Amino acid sequence: MLDESLDIMIWALEQNDPAGWLQMPKAGHTLIDECDGPFKIALDRVKYASRLSDANPTQDRENASVFLLRLEALLIAPYLFGEQPKVADMAILPFVRQFAFVDKIWFDAQPWPRLQRWLEAFLISPAFLGVMDKYPQWRPGDPVTAFPE
């Protein structure tokens, strides 16, 4: 059974990986684990601070920033592990996107030019835009929307 989105990504890429996303160093898997652990915990605490009685958004944002600084240092090429994206890029980018949009003005003001460029390239990529179609909220009586259209 494939429970996690990463498991689904890896399974699909094992079937067909034309861009070589799975061809990355072991450090890529370690980075994904770090994103899914400490960074994701800090992200959730920042994003949902109003729901948590023990939240400290400033400290939680600093905790998340440790991971983001690490990404900034890794992004000496356009992607985390070179000139082409790998599964680590695609697994981590959505979480960085969530974090950035909690307070985009703050995020954009940080000294992370490579991280910001990496995120922006993802946000304007045809692949991302192709899966981010917005649909109106369905209400009783509306016609059925079939996916894909």
Written overview of the protein:
Helices cover 60% and strands 0% of the residues. It contains 7 helices and no strands. The longest helix has 22 residues, at 26-47. The mean pLDDT is 91.
Question: What keyword list fits this structure?
Answer:
149 residues; mainly alpha; Glutathione S-transferase Yfyf (Class Pi), Chain A, domain 2; 7 helices; 0% strand
Give a quick rundown of the structure:
The protein is an all-alpha fold and 149 residues long. The protein has helices spanning 5-15, 26-47, 57-74, 87-102, 104-108, 113-123, 126-131.
What is the percentage of strand-forming residues?
under 5%
Spatial separation of the terminal alpha carbons = 28 Å
According to CATH, the fold-level topology of the domain at 21-48 and 55-126 is Glutathione S-transferase Yfyf (Class Pi), Chain A, domain 2
- Counted by DSSP, the helix tally is 7
Question: Which structural class do the helices and strands define?
Answer: mainly alpha
Please outline the major beta sheet.
none
Q: Write down the overall mean pLDDT.
A: 91
Which helices and strands occur, and which strands form pairs?
Layout: H1 5-15, H2 26-47, H3 57-74, H4 87-102, H5 104-108, H6 113-123, H7 126-131
